[in-house]
Amino acid sequence: MNELREIPLFPLRVVLFPGGRVDLQIFEQRYIDLVTTSLKNTTGLGICLIKQGDEVVRPGAQQTIHRTGTYAEIIDWDQLDNGLLGITVAGHTKFRIEKCWEGTGNLLRASVSFSETDKVGKDAIPMHQQYTELVDLLHNLGRHPLVAQQQLQIDYDNLWDIGWRLSELIPISSEQRQQLLELDDPWERIENIEQLVSNLANGD
After folding, report:
1. For the chain, what is the domain count?
2. 104 and 31, same structural domain?
3. Whole-model pTM?
């Protein structure tokens, strides 16, 4: 992690990893303003998992978030059939929140440090043969129509890519995904994924 930088946050019930994509419907004014500013200035936003509370914060309600998230860039936008603004964001770099506060227009902002390693464009780490079954699993998951339509660029010989995509795609809870995101060692992440997949196969 390096020097601190201030970014806007977008708390969600989703865990996004570097290289991943997620489609969002924007209807709250604070997020419409955020998207408008991001598109105008070609800046991104921080996606982080909600720990407690709802995505839409109501008067008197509390919302807490996890301190590790992923900085994302808006790569596409359009008006949906329901009249709402739809955007697609792509994860780029993991970050950790040092301090957060409510800024202008009820938008959550944070001072964050970016990961030096968990980011798109990092030098590839070749996959080891012992994880061939996980690579095959990712190939199979990637063929699912809902995954295929995301047009993800996956390097199947890169430990980073395999860990990120499996973390997003295997059927585990958001809290388990968050735990995988928070790991800094890609080998530790892939070992944890291997255990999770084994548990799923055994019905644990």
Report:
1. 2
2. yes
3. 0.90
